[in-house]
Amino acid sequence: MPLLTFDIEISNIFDLAPGEDLDRYGPFDISVAATHIVGGEERLWLSTSADGTPLNNITREKAHELLHYLDEKQRDGHTLVAWNGLAFDLRWIGHAAGDMATARRVALKLHDPMFQFFKLKGFPVGLGKVGEGMGVQAVKLMAGADAPKQWLAGNHQAVCDYVIGDVRLTADVVAAIDRAKQIAWITQRGTTSRVGFARMRSVEECLGDPMPDQSWMTEPMAESKFTAWLRDAQ
Question: What share of the chain is helix, strand, coil (3-state, %, to 5)?
Answer without folding.
Answer: 45, 15, 40
